[in-house]
Amino acid sequence: MTAFKNWGIWIAFIVLLLFLFYPLDYYISKPGGAYEISPIVEVENQDTDDEGELRLLTIALSKATPATYLYQLWRDPDHLMEANQIRRENEDDEAYEVRQLKLMSNSQINAIQVAYEQTGNEYTITNNGLFIYSVVKGSPADGKLQPGDRIINLEGAQEISEAVLQELLATKKVGDRIELTVQRDGQTRQVEITLGSIPEIPGRPAVGISYQQDRQIATERNVVFHSEEIGGPSAGLMFTLEIMNQLLDEDLTKGYRIAGTGEILQDGTVGRIGGVDLKVVAAADEQVDFMFAPDDELSEDVLAKNPDLETNYQMAVRTATEENLDIEIVPVKTIQDALEYLEKLPPKS
């Protein structure tokens, strides 16, 4: 009887541990931080007498356990997400992390490019090949390529680009072989791929990867980012403003504490991002003077399929109102909108 009782205690203990710590395929998102950008971005020979602050905003993302899942389901189900709402299909945690860091890298390149164009400084863009985001399990590339690889040569082509790869595949058929030169962890290797097909289009040759052009930017005044633990593209707008603020003698902040979020595209457009409602809370917690939010345009087709969908700006304003947050939300469609708003601001007394 005593032995049976002891086994019961151990089983109950194990069940409790699983309830508290077993990771589910769900994620919980919460407000993150509002981090000052000047220690994160460093422009060579920068202007250093600015009085205000520019801050980027983050959200905190954690895997749910049975205990936290039930609590979140009761308290705030809107921020309880299935894995496929965070990760792409066939994307594991490692591939997700690789993609997030690459999106951050892309946002930094766009930020430098836009900031240098706005300030009249010169830059050079170099094509470094194709960056691999993910590899489809069971595809021809599975086991031969991996997320983070960079294709630097394709069957001897003088230039490697998304268009070049698509044009090459259009001349091939399922079962043909192609040779790639790939960089991984600083080493170069040759990889031979036997083309397969994709379920969506039977008979069409495919490698089984998602990829994007890999760009590098060079400037006369070196720009360094210390953002190793931050992923995603949403800091692009604020990176752009910080780089400009360090390049220019004038103080763009005029003494204000300014937070913001939004992807920066190559043409200066401020793109939509996720989690803006949580970022408003993070900004308000830091008592910033105001916050820039993307005023993205939603097409009629998108609204027809998602009639309750809001722009980032609308969601930010609604959140600030519902949560009774003391923060001003400023809508921006482009970098020029942000700059015009800052130019009209009187210096903070």
Automatic annotation (TrEMBL):
Its EC number is 3.4.21.53. Residues 100-186 form the PDZ domain. InterPro entries: Lon_proteolytic, Lon_Prtase, PDZ, PDZ_sf, Ribosomal_Su5_D2-typ_SF, Ribsml_uS5_D2-typ_fold_subgr. One of its GO terms (biological process) is proteolysis. It is an enzyme of class 3 (hydrolase). The active site is at residues 234, 279. The keyword Membrane applies. Residues 227-345 form the Lon proteolytic domain. The chain crosses the membrane at residues 7-24. It catalyses: Hydrolysis of proteins in presence of ATP. Belongs to the peptidase S16 family. This is endopeptidase La.
